[in-house]
Design goal:
Layout lengths: L1 E5 L6 E6 L6 H7 L5 E7 L3 H14 L3 E7 L8 H14 L6 E6 L1 H13 L5 E6 L2 H7 L4 E6 L2 E8 L4 E5 L8 H18 L1 H9 L9 H21 L14 H10 L7 H18 L5 H13 L11 H8 L11 E7 L2 E6 L2 H11 L3
Parallel strand pairs: 2-9, 3-4, 3-5, 5-6, 6-9
Antiparallel strand pairs: 1-2, 7-8, 10-11
Helix pairs in contact: 3-4, 5-6, 5-8, 6-7, 6-8, 6-10, 9-10, 9-12, 10-11, 10-13
Length: about 350
């Protein structure tokens, strides 16, 4: 099992990356001094796959285990379902020494983490991500939130888990579309920080390695290292951490404008990365050759590079609500080369022109 350290002083924790290692979660929790009652938060899709075996191993190590099963889907990431988690926590008698475990993808992790951050003003939280997107991104860094009709992730907190524990073998139960969605975030890491990772992704297409768990161990570990390094330097997104939002300004707008029904998160981010690269080229920040490399890898991966049936007014409505907006200005993460990005304001008319000319199909 590989371990990546996320250094945050007294809130530091380890990211455990292994294969067929779920049975080791209980002992690792014990090493952290955790005990008592546990609430596993999962969803209807993941629960029949992993919940019972995880419950068994936790009981074997002395935990009293309870379960909250949520509906599956981004459109359920709201305060109503967080209230359901609270109900389950109260009914189970969770106290301040208890733990909430998120077993699932990013939606489950966000809701479980937000509930853990606010139940009794904060109890122990463990991330057990079962999707590629959650393993390389959503489970790491302590951003927990729910959506609001006015925008994505607008209600939330920074609340670090005690541990992130991932079993790479869970990826074998995912569809190629779900893997593809998570792969968008790995592409993101290459663009923002690591040219050699990006070149590796170009040379080793994921579809040729979709069942190769050692391949996934490698790229997941590299992705986790990048995110851990960034978060360790800027936990609350005051500066450097903003680079992790490459592709997300447009991506979150697309998700919200389509009520989280048309694009997966990874698909929306993929379109957003293409849009940001096109804007950067238009502003003279990146060469057309480097912009094409970004667009080509995203396209060859099978991710979308354009969108349709969304008006500029609808998209702009949600882009303006991006959390990086300041005093009415929209700040974008823009690539200057493969492996390097900057934070820069973008004029709305320039944005509209680029998107309508190059991304709308």
């Amino acid at each position: 099992m590989k371990k990546v350290e996320l250094a945050l002083g007294t809130r530091s924790y380890q990211i455990h990356i292994g294969i067929n290692n779920l049975s080791r979660l209980g002992p690792e929790m014990r090493k952290l001094g955790l005990r008592g009652k546990v609430l596993i938060v999962t969803n209807t899709k993941v629960e029949p796959l992993y919940a019972e075996s995880l419950i068994d191993t936790l009981k074997e190590t002395g935990f009293s285990v309870h379960k909250a099963v949520l509906p599956d889907g981004e459109n359920y990431k709201n305060l109503d379902n967080v209230a359901f988690i609270y109900d389950c926590a109260f009914n189970a008698g969770l106290d301040r020494q208890s733990s909430i475990i998120a077993l699932g993808g990013g939606v489950v992790g966000d809701m479980a983490g937000f509930a853990a951050a606010t139940y009794m003003r904060g109890i122990n939280f463990i991330q057990v991500p079962t999707t590629l997107l959650a393993q390389v991104d959503a489970s790491i860094g302590g951003k927990v939130a729910v959506n609001h009709p006015q925008g994505k992730n607008m209600i939330g907190a920074f609340y670090q888990p005690r541990m992130v524990f991932m079993d790479i073998a869970t990826l074998l139960t995912l569809s190629s579309g779900e893997i593809r969605s998570g792969f968008a975030e790995i592409i993101k890491y290459g663009v923002i920080s690591n040219h050699s990772l990006y070149s590796y992704l170009e040379e080793h297409p994921f579809l040729e390695n979709i069942d190769n768990l050692e391949y996934w161990m490698d790229v997941v570990e590299k992705s986790c290292l990048i995110k851990a390094q960034v978060v360790s330097k800027d936990e609350r997104e005051q500066g450097l951490r903003a680079i992790l939002n490459f592709g997300h300004t447009i991506g979150h707008g697309l998700e919200a404008a389509t009520s989280y029904q048309k694009y997966s998160h990874g698909e929306a981010v993929a379109i957003g990365m293409v849009g940001a690269a096109c804007i950067a080229r238009e502003m003279g920040l990146i060469s057309s050759g480097e912009e094409e490399r970004i667009k080509n890898l995203i396209g060859k991966t099978g991710l979308p590079v354009s969108y349709s049936d969304i008006s500029w007014d609808d998209l702009w409505f949600y882009i303006q609500r991006d959390k990086k907006a300041q005093d009415g200005n929209i700040n974008f993460i823009l690539p200057t080369s493969i492996g390097s990005v900057i934070l820069s304001p973008v004029d709305s008319e320039l944005m509209r022109k680029v998107l309508e000319q190059e991304l709308v199909k």
